[in-house]
């Protein structure tokens, strides 16, 4: 799909750029993706995958992230100068699995492996990353963007319709388009992180080892076979360490780690490392005209809480379906303004959450201080968005914006994450089959769920849907387990909620009529009574709807 002049240029081929490209490709939009580095980056970097991001990978059909990602190891800290355990705990707060949350546990996967997986998915669309290709400058016009690219010293002029900057904290896209990047640099928080190969007497690979403390001098060691059978991701921190100097010398890394672990250690090599200072910054808006920023190009923050990469992935997923509809001529360009409008409050609150965790860690000296279920990101919502519609909430009941809320399964509004429901019996086809609601949701179409006491009750609403392009709107009738279903051949999906999981998760009474429109990014776009509400919602999304 590297055709002449694809309509979208993605700058930066880390996970955020790759997700943006994959979302667009699955929507049928050709993409050109460039990366200024000549070789794929190595290193674990931000390895934590929270449940909301695992849902994004699921919708994109990137099942390897969940299947190959490793569960978090229990952490163990030690009495100073010994290998005697001081306390054991989890680096993550526990969340009970429920039918509505299929991915309830965080997974760990290094960015090096994640990049490989995502590139393979791009290749299914004949799209590959152009390495060693740099964006030098660009110029916007009403009808498109002209970019100047450089590869091996040769300049190229490239005309495209849209540019997505996923080119990191030093983003050339952000700088060129003139977005501000206000915030603070925290000199009290420096880290050296990297991948290392070592073995230590009495150092097992079933715990996340924590030595020393976050304030004075400390070390975090997490075993990962992605690096090798003796591989670890390490973090060094604390004011007593000269971290800038340590980051320049493999020998100093060995010496520092050896001074913090009271056992015999055999060092093999440092595979990759970088020093890091906590920068807490974000853009004033996520787009300007035909140019967008996502991930670190739009926001940087403390690594405490592990929200950075996850937030960037969710930026890209929010933007992708909207840009696809506009490029196809199905939606007005104004839909793209909701990318910034929806993500700004989320990221602003995320910076507050991660900074609060950082402050608790620096105050207590405990790296796992301040962790809470908000980090699972399942409560992130767009209830405040101008394009969501909820006919069951009065304006008086609307609460202040709380975009980074904790998930409350007893409350559901338009703008919230759509829950899953397993064991749905699919009828009306040649053979009855079972599916999950998450099995229906995909990034290139809206899914309308019609909860109705019987098929006859749902018919008028299904009729109203015929006005919409079937390639971007699909529907399913969800019947209660008590409904009698006579065999019927229907163009629409008919599901029987045998165990009541869907009715429970979506808070629908058995005899009630309720319609949910699920956006391509897995967010509830609308909760309405019937056909008029569906039309009202889609009038905010589609041209001539």
UniProtKB/TrEMBL annotation:
Keywords: FAD, Flavoprotein, Oxidoreductase. The keyword Signal does not apply. The keyword Oxidoreductase applies. Residues 7-352 form the FAD-binding domain. Its cofactor is FAD. One of its GO terms (molecular function) is FAD binding. This is FAD binding domain-containing protein. It comes from Suillus discolor.
